[in-house]
Amino acid sequence: MTDGEEKRIEQYREGDIHALEELVEKYRRPLFGFILKMTEGRDDAEEIFQEVWLRAIRNLDSYKVSNFLSWLFKIAHNLVIDRARKKKPAMSLQDPIEEALTMEDRVASEAPGPDEQMNSRVIRERIDRAVAELPENQREVFVMRTQADISFKDIARIQGVSINTALARMQYALARLREELRTEYMELSGS
């Protein structure tokens, strides 16, 4: 934990609400980004983000981890898993809605036209889709490392695994992403 974090936590314990606000703002982007990537939408992410901070506040007296952000990620990780366990299975676009028709048959294609393929927004969406399809433990490692710049040591601690397992999950995630994006590119280019 940095001296600034320690100071703000101590100030909050002594009743200074602004110290907590500073911590929330400092970690909003990496923490919320992680939660958003691990959930199904902004509403879920906002609920979990708030719950992370409520739990952190409730357990602040027992906080002894050296990296405050890692501790917040561990709380978020547990909340995301809890929510996923409670969630009902989502309806698939391939589920039949009529005799031989699926929802996918009724939805217009979102495939970009040739002039849009080079647009970075479209590329980002493809990457996001590919990331969303990764197995949860691989997606979690990938997001923590690339979006929040969490060290593999801290990722391993958050996931409760060895550092080698965290590194392997990242390698598997990258290999799957490369293959998925290569396959999609080949399909789009007609190769």
Description:
This protein has 191 residues and is an all-alpha fold. It has two domains: 3-86, Rna Polymerase Sigma Factor, Chain: A, CATH 1.10.1740; 113-189, Orthogonal Bundle (Arc Repressor Mutant, subunit A), CATH 1.10.10.10. The protein is 69% helix and 0% strand. Helix 2 (17-38) packs across helix 4 (68-86). The N and C termini lie far apart (51 Å). The model has no long low-confidence stretch (mean pLDDT 81).
Summarize the structure.
69% of the residues lie in helices and 0% in strands. It is an all-alpha fold and 191 residues long.
The H-and-E topology, N to C, reads as: HHHHHHHHH
Give the overall form. Answer: elongated
> What is the CATH C-level name of the largest domain?
Mainly Alpha
Percent of sequence in beta strands: under 5%
CATH topological fold name of the largest domain: Rna Polymerase Sigma Factor, Chain: A
In the CATH hierarchy, the architecture of the largest domain is Orthogonal Bundle
Secondary-structure content class: mainly alpha
Please mark out the parts with pLDDT under 50 across 5 or more consecutive residues, or reply none: none
Query: How many helix segments?
Result: 9
CATH superfamily of the largest domain: RNA polymerase sigma factor, region 2, helix turn helix motif
End-to-end Cα distance, whole Å, is 51 Å
Mean pLDDT: 81
- Main pleated sheet: none
- The number of strands is 0
